[in-house]
Amino acid sequence: MNSPEDHPSGPPSPLDGVVFTKGHGTENDFVLYLDPDGRLELTEDLAAWLCDRRAGLGGDGAIRAGQQAGRWFMDYRNQDGSLAEMCGNGIRVLVAYLIAEGQLDLPDGGTVEIATRGGVRQVRREGDQFAVQMGRWAKPALDIDAQPIVQVPGMDRPHVGTFITVPNPHVVVEVSALELKHLFLAVPPVVRPEPDGGANIEFACVQPFDPRTGEGRMRLRVFERGVGETKSCGTGVVASVAAAHAVRPGSPRTWRVEVPGGTLRVRMHDEDGTAELIGPAELVYKARLSPAAA
Fold first, then answer.
1. Which of 26, 216, 229, 253 is the most exposed place for a label (fewest CB within 10 A)?
2. In the annotation, is 233 catalytic?
3. Confidence at residue 146, expressed as pLDDT on a 0 to 100 scale
């Protein structure tokens, strides 16, 4: 990771000298800053500016590393400044950031609790990756009349989707390999009925189980609320595996999911209805806002 460097432009003087870090998890990218004392609120406007890929630093989301009830708190907003319950990729990047900043000592196999708006999540270090206990996922309804219909250019026809929460709201749609390749996600998918507050829309192509490892396999693209198409979505990966796992009795507990930004794994714990998300976290650079820019 590079040393702090001046950024040529920025918002007014209250942010002068603040150091931000850019990081990503399978190319789902974030701007992070340290604020344990709660001095710099992550407002809707600040998050939108930080995530602006032309005027700001650029990212799918912004993360303030705060404190809540004695735990580190992931204060997270989407690219457009809207709030999200949590972020499965972002929480791994946050832990890597806290380690790099000397705020957290986490040896291989060690765990830390991180507070989010969706509840407290345990993160365990696994070598150069991190495993996030994502909590319970809401099992999908199997009544087709209660499920949404999704349409987007590139589909051969409208598809029935599955509502599921992890804890962010998702609609998961299974598509063919050809459809996955040709989906046009520069426009929002049409979902009827539309979930209150919106949802992330996942397009999953389930593949044959790996004959060598026995793992489930899936390729995935995501249209994320408040962002658009992203290279990866951690909660969306878990939601997609949960939906596929629920309708395939006897399917593997471990799944490998290929997203445009890389590879993630999901471990399903059927005994308590929870799931773990395992993947990398990369820190790219630091940027200090220049006083001259105010």
1. 253
2. yes
3. 66
